[in-house]
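Checklist before submission:
- one chain only
- standard amino acids only
- sequence pasted in full

Submission:
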Amino acid sequence: MALTEGLECITLRRIAGELDVRPGLISHYFPAVDDLVAEAYGTAAGSELDELLPADRADATCTQHLARFFALAAGETYDDISRLWLNARHLSRYRPALCARVTTQEAAWRDRFEGHIRDGVARGEFRTDDPMVTAMQILVVLDGLGVLVNSGDTADSPPEVLRMPATTAERELGLEPGSLSPPTSD
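Returned file contents:
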């Protein structure tokens, strides 16, 4: 419901109806709907982070993991979650529990991304003087591009615009242009 209709459509009664249980069962675990909304958002955003940028990266180079990240994040599969992030950020202005969860998720994303960059620097794959600032620059560009999904403009966007997060990462990490592009099949 949060992904397809928006966080503001979540009510205790509606969730109880969807699950075919009494509303009291839902309110036992989530006394206020804002707690349920925050949990729904946090679970979705946390799952997205684990899928897009797993903490365990022993199976490939840091560059390969980052290329995989950009290939997945730019795909239609994650359009709904991009809309959810926008929705959560907007509603968090008015909902303290959601604001706390958005802040926690943003920190988790920033920390995971920064850790990945630090690993790449330590392995000699990436070059940057400040991994935290670099992580934030890349994430800000990625978030900015996420706005296009909300307006439906991605189909009409030039490929260069859609590649901006990867292009920014390549530049900021001292990588060759195109090194974060998905492999092409000949």
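Reviewer check: The two ends are 40 Å apart (CA to CA).
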